[in-house]
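ok here's the first one, seq then struct tokens
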Amino acid sequence: MDKKQGRAFLSLLAVDSFLDNCVHELPQATSTGIRDRFRLALNNLLLQIQMQSGAPLLAQSLTAAKDAKRAALLRDHMAPIVRIARIEAASNTALSALRMPRGDPGVQKLLAHAAGMVAVVGDHQESFIRAGMPADFIDRFEAAIDDIVATLTARSHQHGRRGGATAGIRAALAECTRCRDVLDAFIKSEVHDQPVLLANWASVKRVHRLPSRRKPTAIVTPDRRELPAPGELPIRDASRLLSPVRMIP
């Protein structure tokens, strides 16, 4: 939500509070269907704002979860398989192709590499079980891969929710504004002879601009060390530089 939308949201909250506090002064306007529609639109706006703010936080937490699951995939599944394959490769050359991924691959490349390992190990799982891997180590390996994919999908969903909430804020603001304008007509008609209440309403419904922060102007003070002493002031009158001429009698 940008600054302009934030000011509009604060104004709408003030309108809602004004209507709640003036039920007795505005019995007709506050009991209309537009009043209920305004309240629903404002609640929807608040929900969209919360979603827009919360989605990035959830995406960050999912990124941290993805990193932890990625490390577990390398440590708990891929590394033991590769080390057992080095031992078994002497008697089973098909396992000599199993290697850890080079460098620090991206998550998509890592998942592709892990899927390839599953395909190779599936035909030789008895060798790995005899070496100490659990009987269901392939199922656990595939589950770990699927878990990372699910985490990535959920993170993408959060990014989509943020984009949807941004559009939802614009739509909810427009709906609240339309309802407020209808309520404005009702209020002006109902209390047209009460100038104090109308002035209060006019101030409440207006979107106020927040005061801007002004940088303080720097006050330049002269350096006292550069000022000459009182007795050392420069002579501005050139005639004072010449000694008076004495007449010789």
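and now the second one, same deal
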Amino acid sequence: MAKEDHHLKKEYSTAEFVARLRHLADALEKSERFEFEAGREGVSIPAEAKCKIAYEHEGNKGEIECKIKWKDQSPFAS
């Protein structure tokens, strides 16, 4: 059975965002898996995940987008 596709966005306070990034960075630096809750689902990012940062600037607005991609190693993944 394949996992359902879904999309979740959530805004955090600066302190919450920094704490999550710090935990993620520590795990990646130690080549450890990073786990957290996204809505009602637990997400597990493996140490070998690929990281990408994109920067955009348009007019008087800027945006940085961080992406982390991995292949699901679950036996239930499609």
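notes on #2: DSSP finds one helix and four strands in the chain. Helices lie at 14-29.
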